[in-house]
Design a protein that fits this description.
alpha/beta; Rossmann fold; five-stranded parallel β-sheet; about 35% helix
């Protein structure tokens, strides 16, 4: 069972992502609405996969958080409604999913389907 951390500030989308991850057989180890909280929890929760929104309400682009998870050895799935992606994102391995998130894609990317 894979351990998945979600950092998404849209409550409804975060709940839908968590539901899809769990339905596909993985464990959601934490859902966070700010990069600050997710960053602090990363070492303790030790996720295998991090789903990160790039435009968080706390003003963070999500880029530093995605980079942090990649450095910890997590598979990173970036979720964004924007097509304007920071070029630094190209420095880390990641999957990209456009909002609205198509049904089934998260299960596919987390390797559970």
């Amino acid at each position: 069972m894979k351990r998945v951390l979600i950092c998404e500030d849209d409550l409804l989308l975060a709940m839908n992502l968590a539901h899809e991850v769990e339905e596909a057989g993985s464990e959601v180890v934490g859902t966070f609405y700010s990069s600050f909280d997710a960053w602090d929890a990363a070492a303790t929760l030790r996720p295998d996969i991090a789903i990160v929104d790039l435009q968080l309400a706390d003003g963070d682009s999500g880029l530093s958080l995605a980079t942090h998870f990649a450095e910890l050895g997590c598979k990173v799935i970036v979720v964004s409604g924007s097509t304007l992606i920071h070029p630094e994102l190209g420095r880390i391995a990641h999957s990209f999913v456009s909002k609205p998130v198509p049904a089934g894609i998260i299960a596919e990317l987390t390797g559970t389907r």
